[in-house]
Every structure is written in C-alpha cells, then in structure tokens.
Write a structure and sequence with these properties.
The protein contains 6 helices and 16 strands. It has about 280 residues and is an alpha/beta fold. It has one domain (about 5-265): Nitrilase/N-carbamoyl-D-aminoacid amidohydrolase. It has a 6-stranded mixed sheet. The chain is globular, with a radius of gyration of 18 Å.
Length: about 280
C-alpha cells in the first residue's frame, strides 16, 4: 500500500479523563466516517492538569487504564489504525508517570508503545514554569513500528526540538514521523510550523502532528494548528487556529522515495572532528 487517508484529531483536553475520551471518541468516529484509515490524537489525550498533585488520583497503570481500553475497543470497532498521541500512565517502579504514546492496530491490539524521551523543563515567558520531569519519567528508547501503511517513527511534542532523534528514526527506515503535541501558545506561535516542517524536510518523511489547542481547565494555553506535512516540506493539511476538530490528508508513500532521491541527505552524513581555538 502506498496511499491512504490520514486524520489528525485536534483537542482541548481538560482535567477529567472520562470527558476527554468521550470528546476524542466523537472526533475519531467522525474521522473514520470521512474515510480515514489512520487517525492520530494529540499528546495527553486523556488528561491535561498541571496543578500540583491533582492528576495523581486520576492516572492509572496501563493495565487498569480505562481510557486506553475505550480507545482500543473503538479502533477495533471502526477497523482503523489509531495513534493515541499520549496518555498519562502510572508506573509501578516510580512515583512519576509515563507520557506514553500508543499505536493501536485495527484489531484493537497494541502494536507499539513509546515513552516521551525529552522532558519539557523550561520557562517560556507565558507566566508559567514547566517542569515535566517532576511528574514524568523520561523514556530511554526510540521506537519504530511496522504498519500496513509503512514504517512509523513515534515521538511526542518537545522531542521535535531534538533533530537527531528523527534522523535516527528515518535512517532506520521510518517513512512517517508522528509528533502529537501540546505546544504552548508562546512557543507554538514562534516555532511550531518551522520545527515540524524542518523535521519533514531533513528526513524526507511525512510528519503527522495532532495538537492540543486553546485555554484549558488547568489554566494553560496551547497553540493548536495540527499539521500534516509532506517529505518535501509542504503543508498538506492544517487546523485553523486552536478549536477542536479534524484535518485530513492523503498520504502517498511514493513521495518519500521521491524526496529522498532528490536530496539524499540521509546517506550523506559525515562526522567531522571538532577543532577549538
């Protein structure tokens, strides 16, 4: 298969997992009805709550997570491949959570898991300080998954600022890179489009980047503007603004080989010595 219809679900997740999953499910059903065979939701699909200590009572281990169970069942019912951008998942061996992306097959089975590697520990100038590593344990493994549509490299949000991760995934065979996100409005306005397009251009890969958008119950504001980008860097689809909704694009994997044939940079790497003066 070289061509398929993909969809990004843009959300405005709040502080109650049940309400968030219900909202996501409505949009996933709608996207499937529009012909999407691959559907992706944003980072923290089940919960956005940065208030100290408030998420603890709502986050469950993977085996007990009702949000994951509902979305797996929905993927099987609709016979779609579903990327759950990420869920907050409790860990047995750490007081912190995992920020975990799940790739679900059309039978409802878990094809792959990816724990976000790079933690968002920053002060961005929007009046808030973010210390993701206080609540979440960083992952340690890059993840490449085989799907009926091609090879998929999984990443999450802040990972987009670390291009070596994407290069490694592409050199290992990724045709499509996923970047589910909850970018702040400040950083999104400055960098979101540039970063997502750059990761596509430098790897010759499709990028599918569903996003959170708007003012959330916990007080944060996210940028929205979910994107799908071609291996040549063209924006194939973009959500207008921060409102929840769906974007669709046709993904033709023949474009990956075409772009990489024109600019074969993945095979042109050199490792120069560093000279300091």
């Amino acid at each position: 298969m070289t061509g398929f219809q993909a969809a990004c679900i843009q959300m405005r997740s709040g502080t109650e997992p049940g309400a968030n999953i219900a909202a996501a499910s409505v949009l996933i059903r709608e996207a499937a009805g529009m012909g999407a065979a691959f559907i992706a939701t944003p980072e923290m699909t089940n919960l956005l709550d940065i208030r100290p200590g408030m998420a603890r009572a709502k986050v469950r281990p993977e085996a007990e997570d009702g949000s994951l169970a509902v979305l797996r069942a929905l993927a099987a019912e609709l016979r779609v491949t579903l990327l759950i951008g990420s869920l907050a998942v409790a860990l047995e061996d750490d007081e912190r959570f995992a920020n975990r992306s799940f790739l679900i097959g059309p039978d409802g089975g878990i094809v792959a898991r990816y724990d976000k590697i790079h933690m968002f520990d920053v002060e961005v100038g929007d009046g808030q300080t973010y210390r993701e590593s206080r609540a979440y344990r960083p992952g340690e493994e890059a993840v490449l998954a085989q799907t009926p549509f091609g090879r998929l490299g999984l990443t999450v949000c802040y990972d987009v600022r670390f291009p070596h991760l994407y290069r490694r995934l592409a050199q290992a065979g990724a045709d499509i890179l996923t970047i589910p996100a909850a970018f702040t409005r400040v950083t999104g306005e400055a960098h979101w489009h540039v970063l997502v397009r750059a990761r596509a251009i430098e790897t010759g890969s499709f990028v599918i980047a569903p996003a959170q958008g708007g003012i959330h119950e916990d007080g944060r504001e996210t940028f929205g503007h979910s994107l799908m980008v071609s291996p040549w860097g063209d924006i194939l689809a973009e959500a207008t603004g921060a409102e929840p909704g769906i974007i669709l694009a046709r993904i033709d994997l023949a474009e990956v080989a075409k772009a990489r044939g024109r600019i074969p940079s993945l095979g042109n790497d050199r490792s120069p010595l560093l000279r300091e003066y």
